Every structure is written in structure tokens, then in C-alpha cells.
Amino acid sequence: MEFFVGILNYLVFFAITAGIYAILSLGLNIQWGYTGLFNIGIAGFFAVGAYTSALLCGPPPGPMDWRIIGGFQLPFVVGLLGAAAACGIIALLIGIPVLRLKEDYLAIATLGIAEVIRLILKNESWLTNSVWGLKHIPSPWQVPIQGKIFAFLKTHPLLPAWLQSFISNGYNWFFLALVLLTLGLIYWVSEKSIRSPWGRVLRAIREDEVVAGASGKNVFFFKMQSLVIGAMIMGIAGGFYAHYVKFIDANTFEPLYGTFLIWVMLIAGGSGNSKGAILGSFVIWGVWAGTDLITAYLALSGVRAASLRIIAIGIMLEVILLKRPQGMLGEEKRVSKMF
Amino acid sequence: MTEGSVILEIKKLEKSFGGLKAVDRCSIEVKEGSITGLMGPNGAGKTTLFNLITGFYKSDKGEIWFHEEEITGLPVHKVVRKGIGRTFQIPRELREMTVLENLMLVPDNQKGEYIWNSLFRSRSVRAQERYIQDKALDVLEFLELIDLREEYAKNLSSGQKKLLELAKSLMAEPKLILLDEPGAGINPTLMKKLNRNIEQLRERGKTFFLIEHDMDLITYLCDTVIVMDRGRELVQGTPEEIKKDERVIEAYLGRA
Amino acid sequence: MSLLKAVNIKVGYGETEILHGVSMEVNEREIVCVIGPNGAGKSTLMKAILGLLKPSQGEIIFDGDDITSLASEQRVRRGICYVPQSENIFPSLTVEENLEMGAFTSQDDYRVRMKEVYHIFPDLKETRKQKVRKLSGGQRQMVAIGRALMLNPKIILLDEPSAGLAPRLVKLIFDRIVLINHSGTAILMVEQNARQALGLSHKGYVLVMGRNRFEDSGQALLENEEVGRLYLGG
Amino acid sequence: MSLLSRLPQLVIYGIISGSIISLGAIGLSLTYGILNFSNFAHGDIMALGAFLALAFLLLLRGLGMSENIFYPLSFGLPMVISFLLAMAATAGIAIFIDRILYSRLRKTGPVTLLVAAVGVAFFLRNIIQFIWGPQPQYYIKEIQIAWKIPFLGIRIKPDEIFIIIVAALLVVFLHLFLQKTRMGKAMRASADNITLARVCGINTERVIMWTWGIGTALAAAGGILAGIENKFITPNFGWDMLLPIFAAVILGGVGSPYGALLGGMVIGLSGELSTLFISTAYKPAVAFIIMVVMLLIRPRGILGGK
Known about the structure:
The complex is a heterotetramer of chains A (about 350), B (about 260), C (about 230) and D (about 300). Chain A is mainly alpha-helical.
């Protein structure tokens, strides 16, 4: 029974991470799947979301900290909104110079902004605490939930050990619920919007900007909306991540975890399809976690093991592009469906 | 229909491409409610003129007036909103979208194009969508594309794509429709239907300005024909007059 | 003697058939001109002869051999060269380099041939070190034709060589075409500028809606009243 | 030290890093010109070159090749041979990747190629990391003493002079290749108009192979020179180069190799000169800001291009 609980606890941990990735994938799906915007700076938005929320909700700087700003101890929801807003503003600023140009330019501009963000995280210690990172980021309602309710239940003598162990992990269940609720909400937004005339314009732009323009649509404006909304969603994912892991620093948001995996998830699941984006996230995160077992079996060092896993995932991406470019689910044939 | 009032006026328009004057001090008027044909030999500047009117190209000099309002230099989407629709000579379909979606994209001022409305005011958006879909289905029915409504546009044959292009121009409900060789690649039966449709739309107050080479089609449809040569208007008149005009034959055959 | 022969060619793009069975013939050392209203399929005929489009029916005979199934490069090597109507030069290369590209598949020393081309187009010799991007429309057209001449072809296909040129330059280009012909190359050209083109052609074809309509000597076609009317679909 | 007195020294550093960036940017520009495709793996190709050189160097040392250095340079014959072998091997690998991957995706459309290139970038970086691990690797560990040049007040190491000369030589070779050889001219012709190139009987698939080969060999050279300059190489080096080389290409005008050279120099110089005013840590950001400004005012770049 305890073994079973252990697995269950692992699954919760797995689902939380995969759920956060699924939110990121949905953000990318709006940009790439719906509109054809090539964003390879996802890590930057992910990081900005995490830091913004952490600074808004986290504790004030301690005596050992370099930073002199932040720690407003605001509610979690405010943190998420702030994360979304910060990412939206950055997306807007990148969009202005490059959204009128060919898609490659957006790609390189997003890459550039991600790099600049990484430099700021590393160097601006007054804001980001530099390499020491931000610590003690509070998980939402952890104190009341874990501290009172579970503390009472888990030591209750009538409960068997496995149940106590199960309950001691109870807060994660609550966090998972929060993640899934948000994921569901964002799923609802992206599904509803892609089936609406708004989404139709985005897809038209993806297919042929000239035609969309000739139909009287303001292509630049729609691309901007897509870029900004996608970025805001990525920011929200960043917020969740920060509040889940409680500690973030500049190295948390490497291009690999922040950008590459998400691309693979979306392509594998089926870009242009929200269900595909979510499915892809869970499957690829599963593959990622699964390869961990293999590299552990091979007894490789941490970095080597990670490299081997990325090599495998990279080959997988190329094979998908060659053999099944539409991904597992692919786009639905007729997307516009309001009724 | 106000006989004689000018809907589109082009004044001394100029456009060069690397030293080559594609449109050269071109002045043209299109009367409201007319079906005006635009002819001319290859390289006369017809398609360039269309691209200038619709904002795809920016003119070097000159003015374009639509409904007594200057539209020179407006971006494409604003020109469309003023009420000028166009078709492309070579069809440009939205490949990975269905035929129906291709059409439903076109109407302007859709409430659901604002994301806020499509998320939170779905009732009114839905009503409008239903209206637009009915309209699109009508157009498809008319052009005999109805069976293909759920097909990807990329899977259509080239003749069907040409029809789709026409269907899209019908969806836009513009006041002035520019058709770039509507007749090319369409079978005669459909062509007749198309003619009838254009006539009907004209009776409802639409104006047509079309590039066409098929003289039969022009004779049948157009009340006025403008012949362009070397970037400007050469002759204007009824189809009968044009056919007899020596200058036109000269332009087509080249000077001796 | 017959050099190039197209027999009952049917060809089109995708499902749209443009030529519904066109036949034509060019003899050695002849200038043949194909005219007709827009959309008659003149350029399509050129592309079919060069092999850029595959005919669904009919055959193309060159120098006694059936070349219908050969690839374009093989046709080029046998001596059919083609000057497209637009985008027929390499703008960022110099005149000389453009000509060299024309001789890319040739094993011989291209400089010998280049001299002959400069002999036909002396203006090109003066601008040989200039980038073609900087040349005028007429000069560009000369570069394009010169490039095609570099392989010393038996026949050269010209798609509207006078399109977009000022009248003075049109005359110049046509003069040069005659000169090329005098040096022994057969010419098949599609022209909008029918009067001038027919005036120098040995033979002309009038194509209408993808079918042969008239075939006669250039002069006879010029004098044919009906040809003019045909252009206007009358 | 006053700002002004540091200037000559920074210009030297700028030229060195400009040389390295240019070699990467030229290759990127060449492949873009013909394939119309931004190769996001190009930075990692540079790193691949640098590590292949290391592999060859270790191999030659292992075979017992003597390390007699070319005084005053800090390295000897094994390094030079490794340099050339690594350029060739990088080109070979790039052509191989094109055959098995890119060439099959070309008809699918340009955006799929972009995604594929991002995949290749991560793939290459992690192959390197898997073999060598994340720690810095060294070609030569000895520290070289810089020469002081009187009057100008600058210091320059003999290796750095070597870097500038080699980069300049490679650029001259490339120039001669593009201008004088048949294949070079065919490459330029294909970049202009690939359909017309086919009509001329040019085998454009061969041209594409040559373009990959030359572009990536130059990238490899850039990577190795960077390794000589920095004294060490890391698997992440390619990623760090990506932004400067793209900025250089955009600055010079996409598709123009000469523009890329110019752009590379500008990016290199401005990166170094920026340290007069802002923290060294933000050097990479300078390239990005120059690029964004360029996109705002003149998206076609200094030398036009496509």
C-alpha cells in the first residue's frame, strides 16, 4: 500500500510539472499553431513570469540578500496577473519592430530578448538577487492547508501509516488542482477563441498574410494580439512554476527546459490543436521522465545523462517532422465552430 | 443608381519598377453602377493598376479617389474597408482551411473578431456567425461548390479554386469589385452563371471593374471598356466601339 | 529541313489544360513567330518544348529524335536554349558572369563563344564588368539572349523578347534577332508585338484558346485582315 | 584609465571578435541566400567545429605528433592540421545533415525547416556535451604574454594577430572562390535565381552541397579561432554565438556575404566599445539592441540584400 501511495505521490508531482508545461504549450500553440509566429524565446517569458510573480508574492529581502526590491507578499492571484502583464508588455515591445517582417526575424528577436532577460537575471542583483536567486517563494494557501488541516489529520492515531503518508502529500493535490483548473481555463479560452472569427483570422494569417489583408483584416494587429496573449499565458505558467518549486535562479530557465522541450511537446502533440498541445506535454514529459530511468540505469553523471536525453528527444523531433508533421492529433479539419 | 456619378477616379497615377514605367500618368474613371472592362496587351499595366488601387503597391505619383474620398497610399485592409474588393488572377486560397472557412473569413466588421466578444458575448457572436455561414452557404450553393464546403481549400482543382476566389469576392459585399481575369479557367456553363450573378449584383448597386481578355465576355457584360497601353488609358468606349477602333488593334498587334 | 517539330501537344497546369492539341514546325535557320491573344497558350508551348511542363499527349521531335521524355537539361545540351519572359538574368552577377553561366554545361572554352556573342551585342562588351542589376531594360534583355546563345544552340526560344521595352529598343532587339538568325541559329519566338515580329519571320502561327488557328508566311499573316480581329476575340 | 586611452585596445579586441563573428555570419548568409532558410543551428555548427578540432588535436597528440610550437604562437603543427581537418569534417557533417534531414523537408515549406534547425541545434550541442561534459576544454593551457605596441598603447598577443590574419585570409579565399571559380559563380547565380540556374543546366543540388560545405567550414574556422582567443571552449559557446551572428547578418543585409562581413565587424567592435559605458556582462545584449534598431530603421540591412 505504501508503495502504491509512493507511486501516487510521484504521479502528482509528475502531473503538476506536465500541467505547467501544458500551459506553456497552449501559449505557444496560440502563437505558432494558430498564427504561425515563430517564438524561440519561450524561456524568457517563462522566466519573466516566474520572477514577477515571485517578487510580487515573495518575502521581502533578507539580510543575506543582494536585492533591494520586491517581496510585497501579495496574494497569489495578483502574482499571476502581474506575471501575465509583464510578459504581455515585453511581447508588445518585441512585436513592434519585427511583426511586420518575415517570420525568421521574430524568431531571432525572441531569442534575443530571452538572452537579454537571462543576462538581467544574472547581473541585476538589486532586482533578481543575481545567482543567489529568489528563495522562500510561498505556495498559495500552503500554510492554512498544510499547517492546520493536514497537520491535524496526518497525526491522527486512527489513520493507518499509508494514509498518513498520503495525506502528508495532500498539499500537492491541492496545487495540482490549481494547475489543472488554470489549465482548463486556458484550454477553454484557446478553444473558444480559435473557433471564433478571431481565431479564423489568426489561421488565415498563418496560411497567407496577403489574403488576410485583402479580406480587410489588420494583420499586424492580429499578430500582435496572438503574440501578447501567448506570452501572457507563458507568464502564468512561469508564476505557477515559481510558486511550486519555491526557489528560482537564472539557471532554472535554460533554453532547453524553457524553449526546446515545449516546441517538441507542441509538435509531437499536434500544433494548431489545443488537445494536442496538452497531450503532447504529458506524453513528452513522460518520455523525458522515462529516459531518466534509462540514464539512471546506465549510471551516467547528471549532465551527461541530460545530454543523452536531449539527443534522444532531438532525434524524436526530427523523426516526427519527417514522418508525421501533423503530430499525434493534428489540426481538426473544420475549426470554426461557434455552434 | 445615380447615372453618371463617378465611383473610382484615378488621376495621373504613376508607378515604376526599376526604371520601367508600369503605370504612366494614368487617368481613369469608373462610373457607379457600371460594369467596366479593362483590356490591353501584356505589360500594359492592368494588374499593376489593380494592385495600386487596392493598396498592394504604393504609387510614385498621382491620386486615387473612391467615392469622393482620397484613398491613395492606404494600406490594403483599409482600402477593403472603404468598400473595394478584389480577386486574384492566380487564386490564393487559405490552404489548410475549409472552403467554408475561407468564405467566412471575408465579411468585415465581425463582432467575433474581437477576442473579448468571442469569449464573453458568444450569443451575439454566434448569431452573426450563423448569418455569415448562411450567406457563405448561399454563395457556395450558387457557384455549385456546396458539396466541397468542408473540403480543405488546397484540395480543390484549379478551376474550383478560381470559383472560390469569386465566391470570396461575393462575400465581401463591397461597393466596387475588381476582378482580375474572372473568366480564365472556368467552363462555359459556370461562366454563364457567373455573368448572371454579376448582372444581378450590379442591379443591387454594385460596380464592377474587371480585367478580361475574352471579348465575348466583355461584349456580353460590360457597358464601358477601357483599353490600356503602355501604362495609360488608350481608348474608352462601348465594346462595339472598341472592336472597331484601329488604335486598339494597333496596340495589340504592335506598330508596324 | 525540319529542326523542331511539335505534334498535337496537349499540356496544362494541374487539371487545367491550356493547349488542346497544338502542332508546329521550325525548319533549320528559320525564324518562326507564334502570336495570339492573351491566354492563347503561347508561353505554355515554349515551356512544353523546353520540358518545363510535361505534355499529356503529343510528341516533340528535335533533329530527328523524339525528345518528349527528356529532362530540360538534356534538351539544353542538345541545343535548345530558352529565354524566359521575366527573371531571365542573374542581377547580382556581371554581364560576363551571366554569359559564363549560360555556358555552364559546355566543355569548350566559353571565351571563344563569348567573343561571338559580343560580336552580335557590341554594347554588352562595353558593360561586361558591370553588374546586370545596374543595366537598362534593353541591355538586360540582350544579356538574357546572349546568355542563351553561349551554348551555341541550334534553336533559341524567346518568350516575348520585346516586352516592356521602348519602341527604339524593340527595333534594336529585333535587329539583333535577325543577326543571330543569319549566323545560323533557328529562332522560335512568342510575341505580343505581332506586326514587327511577323515582319521578320519566315513563318508565323496564330494560336487562339490553345488551338492552331492560322499558319502562313509572316508576310501573309500580316496582310490577313482576320488576324487583327482575332486579337479582340471577334 | 581614461575612456579615450582604452579606445585603441578595445578596437583591437573588437576586430578580433568581429573576425570570429564574421566567419560565422558569412556562412549563415550563404545558406540563407540559396536556401532561403535561417539556420538556427549555425552557432552550434561553430561549436562543433571547435570541438572537432579539439578531437583531432587530442588524436594527433595521442599518435605522438610533436608539439613544437611555432614561436611566437602558442601552438604548433598539430593545431594547424586539426584546424584544417575540423573544417573539412564540419562541412561533411553539415552536408550529411542536409541530405538526411533538410533536403527532405525543403518541399514541406520554410517554417518546418526552422523547427528542424532548432532541433539540430540542441542535438549538436548535447552530442558535444555528452562527450566532453559541460566543463571548459583547452587546446593549449600555456599562457601567452602579450606584445606591447609602443605609442598606440595597445597590447596584442601573437595568437591574436594569427586570428586576424587567418580570418582575413579565409575571407579573401572566399571572395576569390565566389568571384573566380565556376562553382563560386554558380553559387551566386543560384542565390539570385535558382530556377534560371536550373534552366542554364546548373546542378543546383550540387550548388547547395557546396554552399553548406563552405558556409559551415567557415563557421568551424570561426569556432576554432574563438577557442584559440578565449583559450577554452564550452558546449554552450554555439548558443552564445547565435545572437551576434544573426545580428551581423541582419545588419549587413540578409543573403549578402559581404554584408555579413561588414555586419560582423560592426557587431564585434560595438560589443567591445560598449564596455566603455556599460557592464561587460551586457556585451551580447548590445548585438541584440543594434539588431532591433536596424530592423526598425532599415530592415533590409546596410548592403540591401534580399
